[in-house]
Amino acid sequence: MKRNEIESNTKISIIPEPVKIISEEGIFTFNKKTVILTDLKLKEIAEFLRQFLAQATGLNLNIKDLTQIEEKNNTITLRIIDNMKSLKHEGYDLNVSQDKIEISALTPTGIFYGIQTLRQLFPPKIESLSQKNLEWSIPCVRIEDFPRFTWRGFMLDEARHFFGRDIVKKILDLMAFLKLNIFHWHLTDDQGWRIEIKKYHLLTEVGSKRKGTIISKRKGIDGIPVSGYYLQEDLKEIISYAAERFITIIPEIDFPGHSTAILASYPELSCIGGPFEVSTRFGIHKEVLCVGKEKVFEFVQDVLNEVMNIFPSEIIHIGGDEVPKRRWHKCPDCQNRMKDEGLETEEDLQAYFTNKITDYITSHGRNLVGWNEILNENLDKNAICQYWTHNFDKVLEHLRMGRNVVMSELNAVYLNFPYNLLPLRKTYMYDPIPNELERNLYEHILGLEACLWTEYIPNKKRLEWHTFPRLIAVAEIGWTPKKKKNFQSFLKRLDYFLKRTDFHEINYASKDDFEKEDIKS
Length: 521
What we know:
Elements (H helix, E strand, L loop, with lengths): L4 E4 L11 E10 L5 E4 L4 H15 L4 E4 L9 E6 L11 E5 L3 E6 L2 H14 L12 E12 L5 E7 L7 H13 L4 E5 L1 E2 L2 E2 L8 H4 L8 E3 L3 E2 L10 H13 L3 E5 L7 H6 L28 H17 L4 E3 L8 H5 L1 H10 L4 H18 L3 E5 L12 E4 L4 H9 L4 E3 L2 H4 L10 H5 L16 E8 L7 H8 L2 H10 L7 H16 L8 H4 L1 H5 L1
Parallel strand pairs: 1-8, 3-4, 3-5, 5-7, 9-10, 9-20, 10-15, 16-17, 17-18, 18-19, 19-20
Antiparallel strand pairs: 2-8, 6-7, 6-8, 11-12, 13-14
Helix pairs in contact: 3-5
Protein backbone atom coordinates (compact mmCIF):
# COMPACT_ATOMS: atom_id res chain seq x y z
CA MET A 1 0.00 0.00 0.00
CA LYS A 2 1.30 3.44 -0.91
CA ARG A 3 2.16 5.55 2.11
CA ASN A 4 0.30 8.87 2.38
CA GLU A 5 2.33 12.02 1.92
CA ILE A 6 2.86 13.87 5.22
CA GLU A 7 1.72 17.50 5.29
CA SER A 8 3.70 19.04 8.13
CA ASN A 9 3.98 22.57 9.44
CA THR A 10 7.05 23.71 11.35
CA LYS A 11 6.21 27.40 11.12
CA ILE A 12 4.32 29.02 14.01
CA SER A 13 2.54 32.06 12.61
CA ILE A 14 -0.59 33.15 14.46
CA ILE A 15 -2.92 36.15 14.15
CA PRO A 16 -3.81 37.66 16.57
CA GLU A 17 -0.36 37.25 18.16
CA PRO A 18 -0.88 35.30 21.42
CA VAL A 19 0.16 36.58 24.84
CA LYS A 20 2.79 33.87 25.34
CA ILE A 21 4.24 31.23 22.97
CA ILE A 22 6.92 28.67 23.84
CA SER A 23 8.10 26.38 21.03
CA GLU A 24 8.87 22.77 21.92
CA GLU A 25 10.74 19.99 20.12
CA GLY A 26 8.88 17.66 17.80
CA ILE A 27 5.50 17.39 16.10
CA PHE A 28 2.09 15.89 16.75
CA THR A 29 0.77 13.78 13.87
CA PHE A 30 -2.93 13.14 13.32
CA ASN A 31 -4.21 9.75 12.19
CA LYS A 32 -7.49 7.87 12.05
CA LYS A 33 -7.02 6.63 15.63
CA THR A 34 -6.73 10.14 17.08
CA VAL A 35 -9.59 10.78 19.52
CA ILE A 36 -11.23 14.00 20.69
CA LEU A 37 -11.81 13.92 24.46
CA THR A 38 -14.17 16.47 25.93
CA ASP A 39 -16.28 17.64 28.84
CA LEU A 40 -19.98 17.01 28.25
CA LYS A 41 -20.63 20.77 28.22
CA LEU A 42 -18.24 21.13 25.26
CA LYS A 43 -19.87 18.57 22.97
CA GLU A 44 -20.99 21.16 20.40
CA ILE A 45 -17.52 22.72 20.21
CA ALA A 46 -15.94 19.28 19.93
CA GLU A 47 -18.29 18.57 17.03
CA PHE A 48 -17.22 21.86 15.41
CA LEU A 49 -13.59 20.68 15.61
CA ARG A 50 -14.45 17.18 14.38
CA GLN A 51 -16.30 18.52 11.35
CA PHE A 52 -13.50 20.93 10.46
CA LEU A 53 -10.91 18.15 10.57
CA ALA A 54 -13.16 15.74 8.70
CA GLN A 55 -13.83 18.18 5.87
CA ALA A 56 -10.19 19.15 5.54
CA THR A 57 -8.36 15.88 6.17
CA GLY A 58 -10.87 13.11 5.68
CA LEU A 59 -10.26 11.95 9.26
CA ASN A 60 -13.57 11.24 10.97
CA LEU A 61 -12.36 11.36 14.56
CA ASN A 62 -14.37 9.93 17.43
CA ILE A 63 -15.53 12.17 20.27
CA LYS A 64 -15.43 10.58 23.74
CA ASP A 65 -16.08 11.65 27.32
CA LEU A 66 -12.67 12.44 28.81
CA THR A 67 -13.73 11.05 32.21
CA GLN A 68 -14.26 7.62 30.67
CA ILE A 69 -10.85 7.31 28.99
CA GLU A 70 -7.65 6.46 30.85
CA GLU A 71 -5.25 6.44 27.89
CA LYS A 72 -4.60 10.08 26.94
CA ASN A 73 -2.04 9.59 24.14
CA ASN A 74 -2.98 10.38 20.54
CA THR A 75 -5.80 12.58 21.82
CA ILE A 76 -7.11 16.14 21.55
CA THR A 77 -8.51 17.07 24.97
CA LEU A 78 -10.93 19.96 25.46
CA ARG A 79 -11.37 20.77 29.14
CA ILE A 80 -12.97 23.47 31.31
CA ILE A 81 -10.84 24.18 34.40
CA ASP A 82 -12.48 26.43 36.99
CA ASN A 83 -9.28 27.63 38.69
CA MET A 84 -7.67 29.21 35.59
CA LYS A 85 -8.55 32.71 36.76
CA SER A 86 -5.48 34.33 35.18
CA LEU A 87 -6.83 33.57 31.71
CA LYS A 88 -9.99 35.69 31.98
CA HIS A 89 -13.33 34.81 30.38
CA GLU A 90 -12.10 34.27 26.80
CA GLY A 91 -8.58 33.00 27.49
CA TYR A 92 -7.17 29.52 26.89
CA ASP A 93 -4.10 27.32 27.29
CA LEU A 94 -3.04 25.27 24.26
CA ASN A 95 -0.38 22.60 24.75
CA VAL A 96 0.80 20.46 21.85
CA SER A 97 3.23 17.64 22.64
CA GLN A 98 4.33 14.72 20.48
CA ASP A 99 1.74 12.52 22.22
CA LYS A 100 -1.31 14.74 22.66
CA ILE A 101 -3.02 18.10 22.34
CA GLU A 102 -4.71 19.81 25.29
CA ILE A 103 -6.90 22.93 25.19
CA SER A 104 -7.99 24.22 28.61
CA ALA A 105 -10.05 27.28 29.50
CA LEU A 106 -12.40 28.82 32.03
CA THR A 107 -15.27 28.94 29.53
CA PRO A 108 -16.48 27.35 26.29
CA THR A 109 -15.56 30.62 24.56
CA GLY A 110 -11.93 30.11 25.52
CA ILE A 111 -12.00 26.53 24.22
CA PHE A 112 -13.41 27.76 20.92
CA TYR A 113 -10.65 30.37 20.58
CA GLY A 114 -8.04 27.75 21.41
CA ILE A 115 -9.36 25.73 18.47
CA GLN A 116 -8.99 28.77 16.19
CA THR A 117 -5.33 28.97 17.22
CA LEU A 118 -4.90 25.22 16.75
CA ARG A 119 -6.25 25.69 13.23
CA GLN A 120 -3.42 28.13 12.48
CA LEU A 121 -0.80 25.59 13.53
CA PHE A 122 -1.71 23.56 10.45
CA PRO A 123 -0.30 24.45 7.04
CA PRO A 124 -2.55 26.85 5.08
CA LYS A 125 -3.63 23.93 2.90
CA ILE A 126 -5.85 22.75 5.75
CA GLU A 127 -8.35 25.41 4.65
CA SER A 128 -8.81 23.85 1.20
CA LEU A 129 -11.26 21.21 2.46
CA SER A 130 -10.02 18.79 -0.19
CA GLN A 131 -6.76 17.30 1.08
CA LYS A 132 -7.96 13.79 1.84
CA ASN A 133 -4.82 11.70 1.10
CA LEU A 134 -2.34 13.41 3.37
CA GLU A 135 -1.12 12.84 6.91
CA TRP A 136 -1.16 16.02 8.93
CA SER A 137 1.19 17.18 11.67
CA ILE A 138 1.63 20.38 13.67
CA PRO A 139 4.55 21.72 15.73
CA CYS A 140 4.77 21.16 19.47
CA VAL A 141 4.11 24.37 21.33
CA ARG A 142 2.75 25.84 24.57
CA ILE A 143 0.49 28.86 24.29
CA GLU A 144 -1.10 30.95 27.04
CA ASP A 145 -3.50 33.48 25.63
CA PHE A 146 -6.30 35.93 26.46
CA PRO A 147 -7.63 39.16 24.90
CA ARG A 148 -6.64 42.71 25.71
CA PHE A 149 -10.20 44.04 25.17
CA THR A 150 -13.63 42.48 25.68
CA TRP A 151 -15.22 44.30 22.69
CA ARG A 152 -13.61 43.34 19.38
CA GLY A 153 -16.05 44.28 16.69
CA PHE A 154 -16.90 44.81 13.07
CA MET A 155 -19.81 46.90 11.81
CA LEU A 156 -21.42 46.18 8.44
CA ASP A 157 -23.76 48.73 6.89
CA GLU A 158 -26.43 46.93 4.86
CA ALA A 159 -28.79 49.90 4.68
CA ARG A 160 -26.92 51.47 1.76
CA HIS A 161 -26.35 48.17 -0.07
CA PHE A 162 -27.87 44.79 0.75
CA PHE A 163 -25.56 41.75 0.65
CA GLY A 164 -27.64 38.92 2.05
CA ARG A 165 -27.37 35.89 4.28
CA ASP A 166 -24.54 33.95 2.60
CA ILE A 167 -22.14 36.90 2.56
CA VAL A 168 -22.91 37.75 6.19
CA LYS A 169 -22.27 34.14 7.24
CA LYS A 170 -18.93 34.17 5.44
CA ILE A 171 -18.00 37.35 7.32
CA LEU A 172 -18.99 35.70 10.61
CA ASP A 173 -16.77 32.69 9.81
CA LEU A 174 -13.78 34.96 9.23
CA MET A 175 -14.53 36.99 12.35
CA ALA A 176 -14.56 33.81 14.44
CA PHE A 177 -11.24 32.73 12.93
CA LEU A 178 -9.79 36.10 14.01
CA LYS A 179 -11.37 35.93 17.51
CA LEU A 180 -13.62 38.93 16.87
CA ASN A 181 -16.74 38.75 19.00
CA ILE A 182 -19.12 41.63 18.11
CA PHE A 183 -20.98 41.97 14.80
CA HIS A 184 -22.67 45.37 14.72
CA TRP A 185 -25.35 45.26 12.02
CA HIS A 186 -26.42 48.63 10.62
CA LEU A 187 -29.84 47.74 9.19
CA THR A 188 -31.67 51.05 8.64
CA ASP A 189 -30.82 54.43 7.15
CA ASP A 190 -32.04 57.07 4.71
CA GLN A 191 -31.28 54.78 1.77
CA GLY A 192 -32.97 51.59 2.95
CA TRP A 193 -34.77 49.65 5.69
CA ARG A 194 -33.55 46.03 5.85
CA ILE A 195 -35.45 44.34 8.71
CA GLU A 196 -38.98 42.96 8.64
CA ILE A 197 -41.24 44.64 11.21
CA LYS A 198 -44.58 42.86 11.12
CA LYS A 199 -46.61 45.68 12.65
CA TYR A 200 -45.31 48.15 10.05
CA HIS A 201 -45.16 46.23 6.77
CA LEU A 202 -44.58 49.35 4.67
CA LEU A 203 -41.09 49.66 6.14
CA THR A 204 -40.04 46.81 3.86
CA GLU A 205 -42.68 47.14 1.13
CA VAL A 206 -41.66 50.76 0.56
CA GLY A 207 -38.63 51.51 2.70
CA SER A 208 -36.41 48.68 1.45
CA LYS A 209 -36.41 49.92 -2.18
CA ARG A 210 -34.76 52.89 -3.82
CA LYS A 211 -34.69 53.91 -7.46
CA GLY A 212 -30.94 54.09 -7.75
CA THR A 213 -27.77 55.55 -6.30
CA ILE A 214 -26.20 58.93 -6.94
CA ILE A 215 -23.10 58.93 -9.15
CA SER A 216 -22.34 62.65 -8.89
CA LYS A 217 -24.19 65.96 -8.76
CA ARG A 218 -23.63 66.38 -12.49
CA LYS A 219 -24.54 62.84 -13.59
CA GLY A 220 -27.34 62.26 -11.09
CA ILE A 221 -28.43 58.75 -10.07
CA ASP A 222 -27.46 55.57 -11.90
CA GLY A 223 -31.01 54.28 -12.30
CA ILE A 224 -30.09 50.84 -10.91
CA PRO A 225 -32.71 49.85 -8.31
CA VAL A 226 -31.43 48.74 -4.90
CA SER A 227 -33.60 46.58 -2.64
CA GLY A 228 -33.59 43.70 -0.19
CA TYR A 229 -34.39 42.97 3.44
CA TYR A 230 -34.23 40.19 6.01
CA LEU A 231 -37.26 38.29 7.19
CA GLN A 232 -37.34 37.79 10.94
CA GLU A 233 -36.71 34.07 10.46
CA ASP A 234 -33.62 34.85 8.35
CA LEU A 235 -32.30 37.05 11.14
CA LYS A 236 -32.86 34.38 13.78
CA GLU A 237 -30.99 31.85 11.66
CA ILE A 238 -28.01 34.20 11.28
CA ILE A 239 -28.07 35.08 14.99
CA SER A 240 -27.91 31.37 15.84
CA TYR A 241 -25.07 30.88 13.35
CA ALA A 242 -23.13 33.72 15.00
CA ALA A 243 -23.79 32.40 18.50
CA GLU A 244 -22.27 29.05 17.55
CA ARG A 245 -19.12 31.05 16.75
CA PHE A 246 -19.31 33.05 20.02
CA ILE A 247 -20.21 36.25 18.18
CA THR A 248 -22.86 38.61 19.54
CA ILE A 249 -24.93 40.44 16.93
CA ILE A 250 -25.92 43.97 17.92
CA PRO A 251 -28.60 45.49 15.68
CA GLU A 252 -28.60 49.19 14.89
CA ILE A 253 -31.95 50.85 14.21
CA ASP A 254 -31.25 54.53 13.55
CA PHE A 255 -33.38 57.12 15.43
CA PRO A 256 -34.30 59.97 15.17
CA GLY A 257 -32.13 60.95 12.16
CA HIS A 258 -31.12 58.94 9.11
CA SER A 259 -34.82 58.12 8.86
CA THR A 260 -35.86 58.96 5.29
CA ALA A 261 -36.73 55.30 4.56
CA ILE A 262 -39.08 55.40 7.57
CA LEU A 263 -40.69 58.64 6.43
CA ALA A 264 -41.13 57.38 2.85
CA SER A 265 -43.13 54.52 4.40
CA TYR A 266 -44.96 56.50 7.07
CA PRO A 267 -44.79 60.26 6.24
CA GLU A 268 -47.08 61.11 9.16
CA LEU A 269 -44.11 60.50 11.45
CA SER A 270 -42.36 63.58 10.03
CA CYS A 271 -42.68 67.24 10.96
CA ILE A 272 -44.06 68.36 7.57
CA GLY A 273 -46.12 65.36 6.40
CA GLY A 274 -44.31 64.42 3.19
CA PRO A 275 -44.48 62.93 0.67
CA PHE A 276 -40.97 61.44 0.72
CA GLU A 277 -38.97 58.88 -1.24
CA VAL A 278 -36.26 56.52 -0.04
CA SER A 279 -33.12 58.58 -0.59
CA THR A 280 -30.86 58.01 -3.58
CA ARG A 281 -28.16 60.32 -2.26
CA PHE A 282 -25.84 60.15 0.73
CA GLY A 283 -24.94 62.53 3.51
CA ILE A 284 -27.03 64.24 6.19
CA HIS A 285 -30.77 64.63 5.53
CA LYS A 286 -32.91 67.38 7.01
CA GLU A 287 -36.02 65.18 7.30
CA VAL A 288 -36.05 63.41 10.68
CA LEU A 289 -38.63 61.89 13.01
CA CYS A 290 -40.94 64.43 14.64
CA VAL A 291 -40.12 64.18 18.31
CA GLY A 292 -43.14 66.34 19.14
CA LYS A 293 -45.64 63.64 18.10
CA GLU A 294 -46.62 60.96 20.59
CA LYS A 295 -47.19 58.48 17.75
CA VAL A 296 -43.48 58.68 16.92
CA PHE A 297 -42.68 57.30 20.38
CA GLU A 298 -45.32 54.60 19.90
CA PHE A 299 -43.73 53.69 16.56
CA VAL A 300 -40.22 53.55 17.99
CA GLN A 301 -41.33 51.39 20.92
CA ASP A 302 -43.26 49.03 18.63
CA VAL A 303 -40.22 48.62 16.39
CA LEU A 304 -37.92 48.08 19.36
CA ASN A 305 -40.31 45.44 20.74
CA GLU A 306 -39.94 43.37 17.58
CA VAL A 307 -36.20 44.00 17.37
CA MET A 308 -35.71 42.85 20.97
CA ASN A 309 -37.84 39.80 20.26
CA ILE A 310 -35.53 38.86 17.36
CA PHE A 311 -32.14 39.78 18.82
CA PRO A 312 -31.16 38.28 22.20
CA SER A 313 -28.23 40.70 22.56
CA GLU A 314 -28.15 42.57 25.86
CA ILE A 315 -27.26 45.68 23.83
CA ILE A 316 -29.36 47.54 21.24
CA HIS A 317 -27.85 50.31 19.07
CA ILE A 318 -30.08 53.31 18.34
CA GLY A 319 -27.68 55.36 16.19
CA GLY A 320 -28.42 58.94 17.20
CA ASP A 321 -25.80 60.61 15.00
CA GLU A 322 -26.09 63.45 12.49
CA VAL A 323 -29.53 64.77 13.46
CA PRO A 324 -30.20 68.22 11.95
CA LYS A 325 -32.63 70.30 13.99
CA ARG A 326 -34.05 72.73 11.42
CA ARG A 327 -37.40 70.94 11.09
CA TRP A 328 -37.80 70.78 14.88
CA HIS A 329 -37.06 74.49 15.15
CA LYS A 330 -40.06 75.33 12.94
CA CYS A 331 -42.37 72.46 13.92
CA PRO A 332 -45.29 73.42 16.26
CA ASP A 333 -45.43 69.88 17.70
CA CYS A 334 -41.72 69.88 18.54
CA GLN A 335 -41.87 73.39 19.99
CA ASN A 336 -44.86 72.42 22.14
CA ARG A 337 -42.96 69.36 23.36
CA MET A 338 -40.02 71.58 24.33
CA LYS A 339 -42.35 73.96 26.20
CA ASP A 340 -44.18 71.16 28.00
CA GLU A 341 -40.95 69.44 29.06
CA GLY A 342 -39.10 72.66 29.96
CA LEU A 343 -36.46 72.19 27.25
CA GLU A 344 -34.48 75.22 26.16
CA THR A 345 -32.91 74.08 22.89
CA GLU A 346 -33.41 71.54 20.12
CA GLU A 347 -30.27 69.81 21.40
CA ASP A 348 -32.14 69.31 24.66
CA LEU A 349 -35.01 67.87 22.62
CA GLN A 350 -32.76 65.18 21.14
CA ALA A 351 -31.44 64.41 24.63
CA TYR A 352 -35.07 64.09 25.80
CA PHE A 353 -35.80 61.65 22.96
CA THR A 354 -32.64 59.62 23.61
CA ASN A 355 -33.31 59.36 27.33
CA LYS A 356 -36.92 58.32 26.80
CA ILE A 357 -35.85 55.55 24.42
CA THR A 358 -33.04 54.56 26.77
CA ASP A 359 -35.52 54.22 29.63
CA TYR A 360 -37.71 52.01 27.45
CA ILE A 361 -34.86 49.74 26.43
CA THR A 362 -33.53 49.42 29.99
CA SER A 363 -37.03 48.66 31.29
CA HIS A 364 -36.87 45.56 29.08
CA GLY A 365 -33.59 44.41 30.59
CA ARG A 366 -31.44 45.65 27.72
CA ASN A 367 -28.78 48.31 27.44
CA LEU A 368 -28.31 51.02 24.85
CA VAL A 369 -25.35 51.97 22.70
CA GLY A 370 -25.28 54.99 20.42
CA TRP A 371 -22.83 57.16 18.54
CA ASN A 372 -21.17 59.88 20.60
CA GLU A 373 -23.81 62.45 19.57
CA ILE A 374 -26.23 60.86 22.09
CA LEU A 375 -24.16 62.01 25.07
CA ASN A 376 -25.97 64.28 27.51
CA GLU A 377 -25.84 64.90 31.24
CA ASN A 378 -29.04 62.93 31.92
CA LEU A 379 -28.09 59.85 29.89
CA ASP A 380 -28.53 56.53 31.70
CA LYS A 381 -25.27 55.56 33.41
CA ASN A 382 -25.26 52.16 31.71
CA ALA A 383 -25.55 53.55 28.18
CA ILE A 384 -22.48 52.87 26.05
CA CYS A 385 -20.96 55.55 23.85
CA GLN A 386 -19.48 54.56 20.49
CA TYR A 387 -16.97 57.22 19.51
CA TRP A 388 -16.37 57.98 15.85
CA THR A 389 -15.50 61.68 15.45
CA HIS A 390 -15.67 65.20 16.95
CA ASN A 391 -16.39 66.34 20.51
CA PHE A 392 -14.03 63.93 22.21
CA ASP A 393 -14.14 66.15 25.30
CA LYS A 394 -17.71 64.94 25.88
CA VAL A 395 -16.52 61.35 25.55
CA LEU A 396 -13.84 62.00 28.18
CA GLU A 397 -16.52 63.42 30.49
CA HIS A 398 -18.55 60.24 29.94
CA LEU A 399 -15.50 58.12 30.82
CA ARG A 400 -14.68 60.18 33.88
CA MET A 401 -18.18 59.50 35.20
CA GLY A 402 -17.22 55.82 35.16
CA ARG A 403 -19.13 55.02 31.97
CA ASN A 404 -18.18 52.85 29.03
CA VAL A 405 -16.96 53.62 25.51
CA VAL A 406 -16.25 51.66 22.35
CA MET A 407 -13.67 53.28 20.09
CA SER A 408 -14.31 53.54 16.33
CA GLU A 409 -12.00 56.39 15.39
CA LEU A 410 -12.95 57.68 11.92
CA ASN A 411 -9.33 58.12 10.81
CA ALA A 412 -8.19 54.67 11.95
CA VAL A 413 -10.89 52.03 11.59
CA TYR A 414 -13.40 53.32 9.02
CA LEU A 415 -12.70 50.69 6.41
CA ASN A 416 -14.75 52.36 3.68
CA PHE A 417 -11.80 54.70 3.07
CA PRO A 418 -9.43 53.60 0.28
CA TYR A 419 -5.96 52.44 1.32
CA ASN A 420 -4.22 55.60 0.14
CA LEU A 421 -6.24 57.53 2.76
CA LEU A 422 -6.23 54.82 5.43
CA PRO A 423 -3.18 52.57 4.91
CA LEU A 424 -2.81 49.29 6.72
CA ARG A 425 -0.04 50.64 8.95
CA LYS A 426 -2.24 53.46 10.24
CA THR A 427 -4.97 51.02 11.19
CA TYR A 428 -2.53 48.62 12.84
CA MET A 429 -0.82 51.34 14.88
CA TYR A 430 -4.12 52.63 16.29
CA ASP A 431 -4.51 52.30 20.05
CA PRO A 432 -8.08 52.46 21.39
CA ILE A 433 -6.91 53.94 24.70
CA PRO A 434 -6.52 57.72 24.28
CA ASN A 435 -3.26 59.32 25.41
CA GLU A 436 -5.11 61.84 27.55
CA LEU A 437 -7.07 59.22 29.51
CA GLU A 438 -6.13 58.55 33.12
CA ARG A 439 -4.88 55.01 33.77
CA ASN A 440 -7.59 54.26 36.34
CA LEU A 441 -10.21 54.75 33.60
CA TYR A 442 -8.68 52.37 31.04
CA GLU A 443 -11.16 49.65 32.01
CA HIS A 444 -14.01 51.80 30.68
CA ILE A 445 -12.64 51.53 27.15
CA LEU A 446 -14.42 48.28 26.28
CA GLY A 447 -12.48 47.90 23.05
CA LEU A 448 -12.72 48.84 19.41
CA GLU A 449 -14.88 48.29 16.39
CA ALA A 450 -14.03 48.67 12.71
CA CYS A 451 -16.83 50.12 10.58
CA LEU A 452 -17.62 49.51 6.92
CA TRP A 453 -20.07 52.04 5.49
CA THR A 454 -21.25 50.87 2.09
CA GLU A 455 -22.43 53.97 0.25
CA TYR A 456 -19.92 53.22 -2.52
CA ILE A 457 -19.48 49.49 -1.89
CA PRO A 458 -22.18 47.79 -3.99
CA ASN A 459 -20.96 44.19 -4.11
CA LYS A 460 -19.10 41.37 -2.33
CA LYS A 461 -15.86 41.97 -4.24
CA ARG A 462 -15.57 45.58 -3.08
CA LEU A 463 -16.73 44.68 0.42
CA GLU A 464 -13.90 42.18 0.85
CA TRP A 465 -11.29 44.46 -0.73
CA HIS A 466 -12.07 47.26 1.72
CA THR A 467 -12.32 44.94 4.72
CA PHE A 468 -9.27 42.72 4.29
CA PRO A 469 -6.54 42.86 5.42
CA ARG A 470 -7.43 45.85 7.62
CA LEU A 471 -9.92 43.85 9.70
CA ILE A 472 -7.12 41.35 10.35
CA ALA A 473 -5.10 44.23 11.82
CA VAL A 474 -8.08 45.29 13.93
CA ALA A 475 -8.30 41.76 15.33
CA GLU A 476 -4.71 41.98 16.53
CA ILE A 477 -5.30 45.41 18.09
CA GLY A 478 -8.26 44.03 20.03
CA TRP A 479 -6.55 40.86 21.25
CA THR A 480 -2.77 41.20 21.49
CA PRO A 481 -1.02 42.99 24.40
CA LYS A 482 0.14 46.44 23.32
CA LYS A 483 3.78 45.67 24.17
CA LYS A 484 3.74 42.66 21.83
CA LYS A 485 2.40 44.51 18.81
CA ASN A 486 4.97 44.85 16.02
CA PHE A 487 4.02 45.93 12.52
CA GLN A 488 6.87 44.20 10.71
CA SER A 489 6.09 40.95 12.53
CA PHE A 490 2.44 41.42 11.64
CA LEU A 491 3.25 41.84 7.94
CA LYS A 492 5.18 38.57 7.91
CA ARG A 493 2.42 36.71 9.69
CA LEU A 494 -0.19 38.40 7.50
CA ASP A 495 1.47 37.07 4.36
CA TYR A 496 1.10 33.54 5.74
CA PHE A 497 -2.46 34.15 6.99
CA LEU A 498 -3.57 35.44 3.60
CA LYS A 499 -2.52 32.11 2.09
CA ARG A 500 -5.21 30.60 4.30
CA THR A 501 -7.85 33.05 3.09
CA ASP A 502 -6.96 32.21 -0.53
CA PHE A 503 -8.72 28.89 -0.02
CA HIS A 504 -11.87 30.80 0.99
CA GLU A 505 -11.67 33.00 -2.13
CA ILE A 506 -11.43 36.29 -0.25
CA ASN A 507 -10.86 39.28 -2.53
CA TYR A 508 -8.44 41.02 -0.14
CA ALA A 509 -6.42 44.06 -1.16
CA SER A 510 -3.07 43.30 -2.76
CA LYS A 511 0.32 44.38 -1.41
CA ASP A 512 0.41 47.01 -4.14
CA ASP A 513 -2.71 48.46 -2.51
CA PHE A 514 -1.74 48.34 1.15
CA GLU A 515 2.02 47.86 1.51
CA LYS A 516 3.75 50.55 -0.54
CA GLU A 517 2.35 53.35 1.58
CA ASP A 518 3.23 51.39 4.73
CA ILE A 519 6.89 50.97 3.73
CA LYS A 520 7.19 54.70 3.08
CA SER A 521 5.74 55.50 6.49
